[in-house]
Design brief:
Layout lengths: L1 H38 L9 H16 L2 H7 L1 H8 L5 H25 L3 H9 L4 H35 L6 H11 L4 H30 L2
């Protein structure tokens, strides 16, 4: 019984670590990328139709590749980067790469929704492009950004489960190796319940944060 508990606890910690680090890396890279794409749109500070088109295509391609296919296709890159293509650490690479395009697109859409009047007012007061991004665009779009990041992290939880089918560790690995291959329905249901609780907790925290900043 205790061995069973320890197994699920270890897998839960591995899944939590993957979500935390892959989600953090995705946010740190995805939001700046989304801001830059927004700034290269037509009539924006760094308007560049060619550059915007190239970045737009890259993000669309990244969003269209199924996670399982991405994880398999970048195996050589993952092995070169972290020294292995299996395990929890190795899973962080495809997890982050699969989430960055979603966060970048979500960031761009959130910034588009900021009223043009606020941007024009900031310009008339002599604000630089950097100041407008930091003091106007990002604060005004923060509730939407938080909601989008919450959705991305919830999706990431599902991706971690899929990574377990290819030796990624975590709850997905337990569900496959013990639940499916050994026909242990109980442990399969336990892993599903833990994933549901994780998703509910993440969604609840995201909703509370979004409402908090929306009412400020």
């Amino acid at each position: 019984m205790w061995a069973h508990f320890d197994l699920l606890l270890q897998a839960t910690l591995e899944t939590s670590m993957m979500v935390f680090f892959a989600g953090g890396a995705s946010i740190l890279m995805g939001i700046p990328l989304g801001v830059f794409i927004f700034l290269t749109r037509r009539n924006q500070f760094l308007s560049n139709r060619v550059l915007y088109s190239i970045l737009n295509i890259i993000i669309n391609i990244g969003r269209s590749i199924p996670f399982i296919i991405l994880m398999v296709s970048i195996t050589p890159f993952t092995r070169w980067l972290v020294g292995s293509s299996i395990g929890t650490i190795a899973s962080l690479v495809p997890l982050a790469l699969s989430t960055i395009p979603f966060i970048a697109r979500m960031t761009e859409n959130a910034l588009i929704d900021v009223p043009d009047s606020l941007i024009e007012t900031a310009k008339s007061m002599g604000g630089s492009s950097y100041q407008i991004v930091i003091k106007v665009l990002l604060p005004e779009s923060l509730p939407t950004l938080i909601s989008g990041m919450t959705l991305a992290i919830v999706t990431l939880v599902g991706y971690t489960a899929m990574s377990g089918t290819l030796g990624g560790g975590g709850l997905g690995s337990i569900a496959i190796n013990y639940g499916y291959q050994r026909f242990d329905v109980v442990i399969m249901l336990e892993t599903v319940c833990i994933l549901i609780v994780m998703v509910q907790l993440i969604q609840w925290c995201g909703d509370r944060l979004s409402l908090f900043f929306a009412h400020r």
